[in-house]
Amino acid sequence: MYTLLIVEDENKTREALMEYVPWEKWGVSELLEAGNGQEALKIAREMEPDIVITDIRMPVMDGVELSGHLCTELPDTAIIMLSAYSELNYLKSAMRTKSVDYLLKPVDMAELEQAVQSAIRRIEESESRRRDRDVLDRNLPLLQEQFLLSLIGGEHEPDKELASLCASLGIPAEEDRRWQAVVFRFADEREGRMARLTPVVRKELKAALHHAFKAFDCRYVLTAWEPEWMVAVGEFPKTGTFPDLEDASIEFVKAARDYFGCQVTAKRSKAGEPLERIGESLKQMVKIGTAKPDAESPSERNAQLVEAIKTYIERHYADETMTVNDIAEGLSYTSAHLCMTFKKVTGITINHFANLLRIRKAKALLAETDMKIVEVALKVGYSNENYFSKVFRKYENVSPSEYKSGRASR
């Protein structure tokens, strides 16, 4: 439901709009009123209405000036202008202030409803885009990391697909952009083996990496973790001078050794490559860096990691707050690597597997015990009984109570 402000200096017209229009039926739950633009602006600043219906010609402050203030201060507020005048200059003024509609008095009820519904649709579309953007912004670092890992894996076709994906992730991929990459490998100096770094240390190393590269005029840095390596990619103008990434790498290697006790080796790609070629360069550098005579194959390592993920979920499925980040932290991997590996090996997501396990455990409790539905839900990691029932029905096509009754009648 929406809030609507009516701005009209003629009392009878304003009262008629307030009293005789079925606002609630049209989706408006709260009505505000003002007799001129100045009064309306004060109310709008305080109440932030979703829609403003304003007359154009009013004393003190007219509707055009009011709309100008609203567009600047409350850009999400939809505006509908009313006027008894059809002169072209007023219409042009209304158009410049981005009004949703311009209606002539006396107001036709059907036209008013159409204008209000148009405003509501515009608001809903704006809110939907904002929600999508918020979700993207929260997940952007993870998505960028997954993109870089997939680039190494050669999962993207060049040109159109790559450019489109980069645009959605805020990664510059124009033809005049050039990149260089560095692959770092970390070893534990005390134990003489590859280091498995905790999420906290990884986060600090990542910050140190960005600091080192930004100090050498890298305009854009992407990073990605596998269990034993990090990749950084700097983006530079095609015609500009490439900064010396060797110096940046040396600074980072020194910081990693001094502050985190890691022995670090670095390998750089050719300077000034387009993004589609960086993936192949990274792939070769990572392959060379990880090759060992008796090392396990990537498929074996992936299978072991999937089993470790499943074991973790088996032990913690009753904890409703368990997230992929918790699993990643518990296993000392990044969540991006866990998600990609699990999906690649099993064909399903980690959350899907967790739900399957929880429903399987719930079915056993429903069939073998006298526990109530809410008790079963809590036992398998769902604090909300309604949500548990919704998930259960999604997987079993029956409600928990129907399943329990069916088992009892056999």
Q: Summed up, what is this model?
A:
With 410 residues, the chain is an alpha/beta fold.
Report on this model:
It is found in: Cytoplasm. InterPro entries: CheY-like_superfamily (IPR011006), Homeodomain-like_sf (IPR009057), HptR (IPR051552), HTH_AraC (IPR018060), HTH_AraC-typ_CS (IPR018062), Sig_transdc_resp-reg_receiver (IPR001789), Tscrpt_reg_AraC-type_HTH (IPR020449). This is Response regulator. By secondary structure, the chain is α/β, with parallel strands linked by helices. The protein has three domains: 125 residues, Response regulator (Rossmann fold, 3-Layer(aba) Sandwich), CATH 3.40.50.2300; 131 residues, Alpha-Beta Plaits (2-Layer Sandwich), CATH 3.30.70; 108 residues, Arc Repressor Mutant, subunit A. The protein has a five-stranded parallel sheet with strand order 2-1-3-4-5, with helices on both faces. Helix 2 packs parallel to helix 3 and helix 10 packs across helix 12. The longest helix is centred in the first third of the chain and has 44 residues.
Spatial order of strands in the largest sheet: 2-1-3-4-5
Order of helices and strands: EHEHEHEHEHHEEHEEHEHHHHHHHH
Q: What radius of gyration results from the CA coordinates? A: 30 Å
Assembly status: single chain
Q: Percent of residues in beta strands?
A: 15-25%
CATH topology of the largest domain: Alpha-Beta Plaits
Taking pLDDT < 50 over at least 5 consecutive residues as the criterion, the unreliable ranges are 290-295
Span between N and C termini?
49 Å
Q: What value does the average pLDDT take?
A: 79
CATH class of the largest domain: Alpha Beta
Number of domains: 3
